[in-house]
Amino acid sequence: MENKKILLTSGCSFTFEKWNWPTFVSEMMNYELINVGTASSGNGLIGKKVIYHVDRLLKEFDPKDIVVGVMWSGIDRNDFYTEDSREMNNTNNWKENPTKVVDGHYNWEITNFHWTTRKSRLWYEEFHTSVGSMIQTIQNVLMVQWYLERKNVKYFMSTFLDIFHMSGANNIISHPEVRYLYEMIDFTKFLPVSGCHEWVKENHKEFGFNAPDSNGYIGVHPTEFGHVKFAEEVIVPYLKNNLLL
What we know:
Layout: E1 6-10, H1 21-29, E2 32-35, H2 43-57, E3 66-72, E4 78-81, E5 108-111, H3 118-127, H4 130-150, E6 154-159, H5 169-173, H6 176-182, H7 196-203, H8 205-208, H9 224-241
């Protein structure tokens, strides 16, 4: 990594594959890439991984040599610390659940609203609310924002979908338990798009998504072409315009 800046990225399935945006940003900007994204991750895991890995990098590198890119995921995803590995191979065929924040310690179990795992069923049946989920997401954004600012590490953020303005989100944002937290987010550090999915759909719909399946379903994930264009036309110009070189 000598003489190169390090790009540390964290996110969900929009981030973790080799054909996702981090690979292309690192190539276009000549950065060394450390991608700690994991499919199905919620914003708790995404944020904790940023802080853990940046803390390790700062033991060896100067803050000016590190750039962090975070793509936040769905507000309804969650994670729990656990020492119970009974669901390591769960009925949803998730290969790494519990997963890890700290290397070698698989202690974080992911929950998702359509999964049938024990904690997923319990969480969404008994504890989940949209307001509570938005509060947790914003707390994670602020945790990473304030940590990176304190450590003088440059960063940018975005969202996989427009989680702050999609259907019903405006009503959640206006909730008194949410609004004051939302107003603390530094949106100047966010890419100038509503979300990765929305930008690709608006600008490269023809090749940015796979063809519909037999049921007409296209899915939310951009293709490799869509990720290349998102890196080339959104992230790289943002980095250059904001002096994250």
